[in-house]
Structure formats: C-alpha cells, structure tokens
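Per reviewer request, we include the raw input and output of the structure prediction for the construct analysed in the revised manuscript.
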Amino acid sequence: MSELVPITPEKYGSRRWQRYTSYSFAATTSYAPLVAAELQRAMQNMPLAFIRQGQNFHIAAVLSLSPGDNLFVDHQGRWLGGYVPSMFRGHPFKLAKLQDQDKLVLCVDEASGLISDTGGEPFFDENSELARPVREVREFLEKVAQNSVATQRAVNALAEAGVLASWQVKIEIG
C-alpha cells in the first residue's frame, strides 16, 4: 500500500531516495491508465481497452485479465514487455492533490522502501531546491498529467459520440 507524502525541504532536506531496480511494485496492477502521448508505443506492445469507471471511460493497457496480477512483471521483478506505461516510470514519485487544494504537488511513496537517511540521491541540493533528478521526475510527471487532461477530453468525445460499447470478454480456462 502506498503512503504518499508531499516533498518539502523540512521533511526531506536531509533524506535520500534510490531509483527502483525492480518492477515488483507493479506486480499486482492488472491495468495501467495511459495518456495519448504513449498510445502508439503501448498499442504495439500490449492490449489496450477503454475501461468504464463510474460515468467516465479511460484508456488503459491491459496487463492481466485477473485482478491483482500483472503478466508483464516476472517473479524477479523484471518488466517483460517492450513498453513500460508512464504510470510506472516515475516510481516512487507521484503528483497528487492535497486536501483543500486544486494544485498537484510532488509526493513520494514512503512505503516504497526506496527512501532512507543514508544511501541514494538527495531530494534537495545545497540551496534547498529540488535536486536535478527530482526536478526531472517532476517535469516528466507534469507532462503526463497535462497529457492526461487532453486524453480524457478525447476519450469523453468518443463516449459522447456513442462509439464506445461494452464488450463482455469470455475466457475458457483449460
């Protein structure tokens, strides 16, 4: 279970983070939301689907037909496909809205096992500014978030045009 915490100089000024070396954190994710910018690469490497959540449809990579399973991650945590969805590439960072705010804030997953007081890269530089690698991750996540808005508008237009229809998948085991 993730534990997202906003990154501030007060909390993370002297702490460090490590880059992920395994996709084990994604091993129980059966689908991954996608943005338009990644569709061309994703569709060449994995099945895609429009998934209805509440009143809205979202486009996603289908990673497994079984909840809690990801066929693209092996038992050693290696990614088996030719494309990794953007939702996994910023790990352990995420943009999130804080309560009573509309602005997205850069957060880190404290439960990721990648945060420490000693080893890894610093969150902040000597001027208490985000260190360059953290800024680069934030910029990547901001681009994904911006593209997500445009993608959702396009998916909403498809739904409003009536071109999306339910499709019941039947799987025979054995």
